[in-house]
Amino acid sequence: MVDGACWRTWPLANQDSVKDSGKVTGACDNMTPQHKKGAQQSPAPFSVTTDRFSFKEGDEIIVKLLAASTPFTGFMLQAREVGGSSPLGSFTVTSGEAQLLTCNGLPNSAVSHTSDSPKSSIQGIWRAPISGNLNSIQFSTGCGSTKVCFSQPLNCDPGVSPDCYFLSAMTSPGDTAVQLEMTGPSDGYIAIGFSDDQRMGNDDIYICGRDSGGLIRLQHAFSTGRKIPDILPLGNVSDVTSSVNNSIISCSFTTRNPISTQRSGGSSSLYYLMIVHGPSNNGTIGFHTGTFISDTKVDISSPQVVTSEKEPPIIKAHGSLMLIAWMTTGSLGMIIARYLKGVAKGKHYFGKDVWFLAHVSLMTLTVAATIIAFILAFSEVGGWSGGAHPVLGCIVMILAFFQPIAAMFRCGPHHHWRFLFNWSHALNAVAIKVLAVAAIFTGLSYFSTSEDSWLLKVMGGFVGWEATLYILDSFLTTNLSATAVLDFSFLPQTRMELLLLVLFFLGNIAFLVALLVGIGSS
Q1: Where does the chain cross the membrane (predicted)?
Q2: Which of 10, 11, 295, 331 is the most buried (most CB within 10 A)?
Q3: For 338, how many CA atoms within 13 A lie in the half-sphere containing its CB?
Q4: Which helix (H) or strand (E) holds 330?
C-alpha cells in the first residue's frame, strides 16, 4: 500500500545559490531545509497524489505534486518505509523543473527542484525495489489540502519522528470510499475510532495490531465501553497493507463501510477522531495505554488538520494537587523529620517539639491533597482508566491514608518496641515517596504532548535535585560538622541546616512552577 512519502516545502526567501539549484543532498537524512529559514510548519502548499494505492516488487507509481492556491518553489521528495529513516526505491522524472538526487548512497532515490521558479505541478515516477521485504511507504503531506490529518504531537511527521501517532483520511468526490492510514509506535496495537463523543463506547473502530503469530493484521470492531471491543467482519475493505518496522505499526486501507456509531446502523457526517495504542497478548488487544481524541467533531470529507482534545480542568487539578503534595509539602515534611530535628531544639508548642509540629502539619496537608486529587480523578473518569498510573496512584493513596493512622497508635518514645514503629514508619514513607514519583512520571506522560517531552525531563531534573540535597544533608549530618566541611565557623550547626532547608524549598518550588505551567498549557 502506498501510504505516502516524506515531503517538505522550502520557501524562496533566504536561499543561497546551492539551495536554489536544488542540490540539497545535505538534507537527505532529516529532510530539513539547509537555508537560513526553518522548516515550514503549516500545511504544505501542494497536494500529493498517486495513481494507485498498492504495489509489488518492481511496480511503478506516478506521484504528482499539485499546487493549491499558491505556487511552491522548492521541494524534496523521498519514499520511506513507515518508521524508517532511509529512502526506498528510485525515481525518474521528465520535467526540467525536477532533478534526481543520490541519498544514502542510493542513486535516484530523491527528487528536488532545479531552480527557485514558481511551480504549479511536478510529476515523478517511483519504482519499487525488485527484492527485499516491502512494507508500507509513507506519504505525510496533503494534510489540510487533500486529506484530514490527526497526529500527536501536533503536525508531527511519522516519516521523520519515531514517536509520532498519525491518522489520515481522504475521500474522492462522488465516491463513498475512504482511504485511511494509521501509524504509531506500539508493542501491541494501534487503533483509530470514530465517535459521537469524547468517551469510549459506541465507537466504530479499526485495529492494526499483532495477531497470535506476531504478524500485523487489520480488524474492524465496535466499542461498547470499557471492555474489549466486539470484533466485526472486515466488510467492504480493500487495498489493505500492514507492516511493523522498529516497533512502529502501520496499516493503510480503503473502506466503503458506512461509519456507524450505533449497533443498529445510521451514520453522521461529523465524528470525533480517536487514536489509541496498547499491548496485545496472543492476538487479543489489551486495555489501551494511550489515547488521543480530537477537540471537535470532524467531517472527514473536508480536508483539515485536526488538533487533539485538551485535558479536562478536573484532571489538571488532580495533577496539580499531586505535584504540590509530593514535590513540596510531602518532601519538606520528610526532610524535616529526617535531618532537621535539631532546629529550634528545646522549643516546644503545645508540649511538642517544633520540628514535630512542622512535620505533622506538612504531612497532613500532603495526605489531604492526595485524597482530594484521588477523588477528583475518579469522579471525572468514572471508572478504572487502565495503565500503570491508576495502579500506582491507588497504592500511594492506600499507604498515605494508613501512615498517619498508624502514627496515632504508636507507642511511647522510650518503649522497648518503639524501634519497630520508627523503622516501619520510615520505610513506608520511602515507599510512598518512590511510588508517588513513579505515579507522577506516568501521569505527566498524559500531559506531555511535545516531541521533546520536556515535562518528563523537568521531572527527571527534580528527582536529581532532591537526591543531591538528600545526599548532601546525609553527608553533613552523619560524617562531618558543617563548620568542618565549609569552614562556616561563624554559623552554628542549626543555621546551616536552615540554609539547606531554604535551598531545598526554593529548588523544589522552581521545578513545581515549571510543571504546573506545563500542565496548565497542555
Answers
A1: 321-341, 353-378, 390-409, 430-447, 467-486, 498-519
A2: 10
A3: 22
A4: helix 330-339
Supply the pTM of this predicted model: 0.51
- 199 by DSSP, 3-state: which? coil
DSSP 417: T
Are 286 and 191 spatial neighbours (Cβ–Cβ below 8 Å)? Answer: no
Run of H or E residues at 191: strand 189-195
The position carrying cell 535531618 is 339
* Nearest CA among 173, 191, 208 for reference residue 293: 191
Alpha-carbon distance values, 484 to 55, 473, 490, 505, 522 (Å): 76, 14, 12, 24, 47
* Separation between Cα atoms, residue 83 and residue 157, nearest integer Å: 10
Distance (Å, whole) CA 73 – CA 22: 10
Length of the chain, please?
522
Q: Which helix (H) or strand (E) holds 517?
A: helix 493-520
Q: Which three cell numbers stand for residue 179?
A: 482511504
User: Tens digit of pLDDT for each residue in 153-167?
Assistant: 877 877 667 888 999
For residues 222 and 263, the answer to whether their CB atoms sit within 8 Å is: yes
Q: What are 91's three cell numbers? A: 525515481
Whole-number Cα distances in Å, 59 to 91, 102, 130? 12, 20, 8
Q: Residues 431-446: pLDDT tens digits?
A: 999 999 999 998 887 7
439-485 pLDDT, tens digit each: 999 888 777 655 567 888 899 999 999 988 888 877 776 654 444 44
Mean pLDDT, residues 93-97 taken together: 83
User: What is the C-alpha separation between 126 and 78, in angstroms, rounded?
Assistant: 9
Exposure string for 164-192, b = 16+ CB within 10 A, e = fewer = bbbbbbbbeeeeebbbbbbbbbbebbbbb
- Structure-block grid coordinates of residue 114: 532545479
Task: Give the sign of the dihedral formed by CA 432, CA 438, CA 444, CA 445.
Answer: negative
